[in-house]
Structures are given as C-alpha cells and as structure tokens.
Model the fold of this input.
Amino acid sequence: MSKINFLVVLLFFALVLPSFVFADGGMMVWPPKVELNQSAQNAIVAWNGQEEIIILSNDVESDESVTALRMVPLPSNPSDIKEGDFESFEKITEIINEKIEKIQTPGYGREGDNKTGAAGVEIVFHEKIGAHDVTVVKVNDLDYFLDWTKDFAEGKGLEVKEISMKFRNGISNYLKRDIKHFVFDVIDTKEGEESIKPLIYKFDSDYLYYPILISGVSEISESRANIQVFLITEDEILNERYWRPYQKGYFRYPVEFSQKELQEVSEDVAGLFDSKVKVTSFDYYGSLNQFTKDLIFYPQIWQRNLGKGSFGDDVKALQKILINEGLWDAKVEATGYFGRVTKNALVKFQEMNELRILKPFDLEKGTGYFGAKTREVLQQSISLAIKSKTISPWNKNLYLGMRGDDVKELQKILIAEKVWQMPDVKAAGYFGKITKSALAGFQEKYAKEILEPVGLKKGTGYFGPSTRAFLEKHIKQATKEDQEYYGFSTNGFCETDGDCLISGCNGEICQSKTEDTMVSICIVPLRPTPKQLGYDCKCLEGECKWSK
Done:
C-alpha cells in the first residue's frame, strides 16, 4: 500500500503530539521540522439496528518518537473497548475482491461509581489497553469540556494552544445531537514507521454512525487523505448520494457476506448479526475540509407527517439530521419537540432539495411542514431500507447498578404509575434501590400478568423477560404501524356518542360504557394520543371508535 506524506490527523481523530500541539481537533507541527507520514486509514463500521462496532486502523511514520492523543466522539458510552487485529481488514478486502471479480462489477462514483473531573465532564472509563491509554469522558457542558481538554493535554505533558472557533463549533454540533461521549486515546510511537494495532469500539446506537466531522473541523483540514471504510448492515444502503459533497468518493458495489465469512473478518462483528449481511466499501481521497458532517443513516422511522407541536423520537431524529446538515441556527439541542427552530431548519432542507420537494408543487419557498414528499426525500437520502426493529426501548434485562436511556424510560413509567416512592428524585437513568423498590411495586400492581405466570407473588425488582414482555405487549397494542397516534379502540357496543368514553392512563383508549373500564400502563407515548391529533371517541355504526 503506497504511503501518502501529509501532516494530518488520524482518521476520525484529533491528534496531539509532544512534538505537536493540541489545536482544534487536528494537529500542528511543533517544531516545524517534525513530519508525520500516514498511509490510507481503514475502518470497519458494523451496525445491526441497535448496536454498532467500529474497528479503526492506521499506520504512522515520524522522524522522532512521539506521543499521539486521539479523540473520537460516540453517541453512547461504549460497552466495550479492546484491541483488534490487522487481519480483519486484510480478510474483508480479500473476500470483497474475490466476490467483485466473480460478478465483474466495477466500483461506481458518486457525487457525493464515576469520578468527576471539572464540572460538566464525567470520566466514565479509564484503562490501559495494550499500547493504548484510553479515557472515555461524558460531556455535559461545552466550555467545561474545552477547558478540561486543555488540562488533560497538559497533564500528559503536551503543549497546548488556544482552541479555534471552528473546532469549538464542531464539538457543539456533536453535543446538540446528543453525542456526548468522547474517547481520548494516548499512544506512544517510536521513530520510523509503526503500525498501531486497531481498537474496537462497541456502543449502542439507533442509527449507523461514522464520525468524520471531527477531522473536517481541524486546522489541518486542508491536508489530503486516503480513506477506506467498510459499512456492514443487514440491508443495502438506499441512496449513496447522501455523500454528494465528497465528489471524489466512490461507493463500491454492495457484497453479500455469510455468517461464516463475517466470522473470518471479526468474531465481534459477526456477533452483531444473525444471518447474512451487505458490505459496502466507500473510498475517498481528497481534502479533509470536504467533511462538513458525519455519515449517518437512520432506519425508516418516519411514518407520519410532522409539524409545529409534534413531539416524539421521530422528531428528535429529524432534528439530529438537520443539525448534522448544518441547517440548525440555534444553541438548543435536539429535544423531540417540533418548534420554531425545527421549522426554520426544515425550510432550509426543503429549499436545499427544491427540485425534488418544492418544484412538484410549484413552490418556491419551503413550508417547514414535514409531509409525504419531504419524508420521501429524506428517507431516500439518509435512510436504510429497514424499519425500526422495535418500538420498545428495552432489549435487555435491567437490574441494580445499570445505567442508560432504557433505565430512564423505565423510571418514567414507574413515576407515572405512582409506584415511585421518592417524588423529589427524578428519572436519571441509574438503576438504584429506589428504582428496584418501585419496580417491585409495579410488578405487584400487575401481578396477574407479570408475577403469576412465573409462579411469584412478590415483586422482585428485577426487570426480566416477564416484565419486559408485559410492557412491550401494551406498547404494541397501542402503537400500530398503520396509525399516526398512540392508542386504540375497543369497538364496544354503543347507540350514541354518549355511550362511549375515553380511558387509559394516557387517555388513549376509546371504549364503551358497557365494558369494564380499560386499564393501561402509563407508558410515555412515542406518538401523540388521539385527542392531541383532533380525534374524538364516537359511536360509529354501533361501535365505539376514534374518529375525526
């Protein structure tokens, strides 16, 4: 593999060297005589709809012994970080080349207990992994994080310069998208050429994520780099034209890998999938300043129109995309509520895609309404050909000591169900004694469906299969794919509208007065309730139904 000489940050990362100084997510040469030579960087990005693994590899060459400090942002706290193997890249290239040769399909171009540091920064992980000294921090405040970063570099004996506004804005972009975990990786390298063993990062993510913006905001972003990324998904990527700003990039023909072939590449990656997958190779050579956004692909979660006043996970996903696209003119983060800021950003997205969204309706200006046409364009551009795997936030058992958004969602339900014994304590995402006690009370409240089937009388406070199945049953019952609201109708007997009534913890059930009052769990709806969308509980043809 040919070497490309340039003074450049390693793929994805900010790089700080003792002979270099921390600048703005990239690096500077200090003294000027020091030179870093780096070959084409490689990455394997595997995503199964819920979890992602990134394997990162690079070669470095320097005329002095140096210490490298790399930084990579992640959308969640990594569940595992460990050394990988160079053979993963060799094997995936070998298998792809064999398959491409057989089908004779050339590549085609596309346009395209935690210790707290400074306030606002939590150190959530620190460990020496082979040659890597890895620290993971959770960022709660931008200014504190930037100050903490300087202190971190100084603590490693690295000279520090002022952080540029360009880098500051780049970090702010990540935080607005709720990407708050940053990995700092310190590596000592020797004089001459050295291959640094790759690291494997595993983390939860509800979208495919490739962090390249961090390189584009560096002050050495004028440098030219050769990049190769292997994207592994269960389904093909719908539309590679999402990468149209990167005109020298090439998406190669997607190749199908069996489980056996995937295991030859990496046991960790193979463990993400149950069956065959699609592997798409992306190659790029050019200036890093072309990378003005991260590569993200969402599953097709947008099933309804959105406008001012809408709220939910689909709104939050839309907001994250608009922020990533550089269309968000506000300091606020993605919240899941569709307000003025979201509308203004969406107008820009529509006008950016005017030929596909506005022209068919003879419109000259964006409306800021997320209707069928805008949804279609978005899903063709930044989406995968799969639907979200589950509308439940829980895919594992939960118990004392665990942390995460799944714990937080469970806590919200326990609070709404009035089994939470500490009203001054809010849902925080940590499973402690309060959560365990409340969960036991919840299990006893619905003992007939949760405890009795497994032969129990007392709640355990353990969020296992029985409790999870109970919650998922109620979520699915009230959230059908073909309806825009959270709720359902019992179709109970009626003669007039007065015979129908609204029930359920969230007012989501339309039922008959002749039926026993329906009981539902106080799940936090992922969609609006029928009343919020203007539906009324009416008597239609002798049955109680939601209707406008």
Remarks:
- The mean pLDDT is 76.
- Residues 87-103 form the longest helix (17 residues).
- The radius of gyration is 26 Å.
- The chain is about 25% helix and 25% strand.
